[in-house]
From TrEMBL:
Pfam families: AdoHcyase, AdoHcyase_NAD. NAD(+) binds at residues 161-163, 195, 224-231, 247, 282, 303-305, 350, 357. PANTHER family: ADENOSYLHOMOCYSTEINASE. This is Adenosylhomocysteinase. It comes from the Bacteria. It catalyses: S-adenosyl-L-homocysteine + H2O = L-homocysteine + adenosine. The gene is ahcY. One of its GO terms (cellular component) is cytosol. It is found in: Cytoplasm. Belongs to the adenosylhomocysteinase family. GO terms for biological process: L-homocysteine biosynthetic process; one-carbon metabolic process; S-adenosylmethionine cycle.
Length: 428
């Protein structure tokens, strides 16, 4: 492992065009209307400054919603730097506004190449973070591999997404997770809503924006029936699609069957599908043999974190011609005479072709992120190395605030019910 010398961030920002800031600001303000929970946290943070003196790096999709997270973290006193967690998800107007209007350093440009992406990760690490807010675990994994000397300054990290949690678990198993990492993804107020309803809606939004096709009557294959797959399948059915689910986990497969979906192996689904959506988190879920048997004009896209789920290399090798047919839409003409259409270069279609999850769900996800940062600081030095859940009270409080903002009241237990719930003596 190499230890790169630690130096402060010299460059202040790297965005596409600062003149885009007014549009970005307008869109950030619009998103804020749907983010009342994060707003309340931001207002409290402004008064209490729980993150004062904390150097923080957030590696997230640079969207209007992330802007509100960054503003909340800055209000809490954090010296925050933002980088993109995906080359195709950056909203350049938002990046510009964060720099110009909110004074937050951002290093992100839509369409940046891998070299630039990795350089931004290094710039982020040059900031010598005490806290890393990661989405996919790239910054944390790079720090562990290349900046061991800086680990002494790290209080902990927070992780947004399932893929990142899988990587953190692998790091823990390998004995290299020597600091606390807060698992934001598994908070109830995160994955029940963001992964399910957020991915469900934004994935279809991405497909529609990229293709403008009618979903009703189409056979839509959803690969993976985790929370993202559940939401995607549910919404695809809601749009009139005939939904087929593919799975490798037997329990999830039964769930999909009992939710009313047809479950078959991908080899069979490949023959029937009009549209394919991967949300498994694993690689090469759709590969050479599947492309070969697809219908002419089948549409393939991914909504999982990394662009690994569709084997585009194999598809390229099977193709005689690749051409752009619309924005975010490429047609591969195969040697067998049929064509396969790939959306968003196999990157997460909801952020590549649309704007990611709607603000109302990111409100809860990012409320969790903000509270997770506060939790790490409050408990500095007290948390064991390893993966920690968001405290249940924080999760419940976020739900309570969300309900309140939605104007929905719920019941509470009567004293008699509390006593009953805590007793074991009375049965039938
Ligand atoms: N991940 C999915 N949707 C997102 C959004 N709107 N903002 C940030 N991260 C996201």
């Amino acid at each position: 492992m190499t230890a790169t010398p630690v130096r402060p961030t010299e460059q202040k920002y790297e965005v596409k065009d600062l003149s885009l800031a007014p549009l970005g600001r307008q869109r950030i303000e619009w998103a804020g209307r749907e983010m009342p929970v994060l707003r309340q946290i931001q207002e409290r943070f402004a008064k209490e400054t729980p993150l004062k003196g904390i150097r923080l790096v957030a590696c997230c999709h640079i969207t209007t919603e992330t802007a509100h997270l960054a503003i909340a973290l800055k209000s809490g006193g954090a010296d925050a730097v933002l980088i993109a967690s995906n080359p195709l998800s950056t909203q350049d107007d938002v990046a510009a506004s964060l720099v110009a209007d909110y004074g937050i350093p951002v290093f992100a440009q839509r369409g940046e190449d891998s070299e630039t992406y990795l350089r931004h990760v290094q710039i982020a690490l040059d900031h010598r973070p005490n806290i890393i807010v990661d989405d996919g675990c790239d910054v944390v994994a790079t720090m562990v591999q290349e900046r061991q000397a800086q680990l002494a300054e790290l209080i902990g990290t927070t992780e947004e997404t399932t893929t990142g949690i899988v990587r953190l678990r692998a790091m823990f198993k390998a004995g290299v997770l020597t600091f606390p990492a807060v698992n934001v993804n598994d908070a109830d107020t995160k994955h029940f809503f963001d992964n399910r309803y957020g991915t469900g809606q934004s994935t279809l939004d991405g497909i529609i924006r990229a293709t403008n096709i009618l979903l009703a009557g189409k056979t839509i294959v959803v690969a993976g029936y985790g929370w993202c797959g559940k939401g995607t399948a549910l919404r695809a059915r809601g749009m009139g699609g005939n939904v087929i689910v593919t799975e490798i986990d037997p329990v999830r497969a039964i769930e999909a069957v009992m939710d009313g979906f047809r479950v078959v192996p991908m080899s069979e689904a490949a023959v029937h599908g009009d549209i394919f959506i991967t949300v498994t988190g694993n690689k090469h879920v759709i590969r050479g043999e599947h492309f070969e048997s697809m219908k002419d004009g089948a549409i393939v896209c991914n909504s999982g974190h990394f662009d690994i789920e569709i084997d585009l290399k194999a598809l390229g090798a099977q193709a005689t011609e690749v051409k752009d047919v619309r924005n975010f839409t490429q047609e591969y003409r195969l040697k067998n005479g049929k064509s396969v259409v790939v959306l968003g270069e196999g990157r997460l279609i909801n952020l590549a072709a649309a704007e990611g999850h709607p603000s109302a769900v990111m409100d809860m996800s990012f409320a969790n992120q903000a509270l997770a940062c506060e939790y790490l600081v409050t408990n500095k030095g007290k948390l064991e190395p390893g993966i920690h859940s968001i405290p249940v009270e924080a999760d419940k409080e976020i739900a309570r605030l969300k309900l309140q903002a939605m104007g929905i009241a719920i019941d509470s237990l009567t004293p008699e019910q509390i006593e009953y719930a805590n007793s074991w003596t009375s049965g039938t």
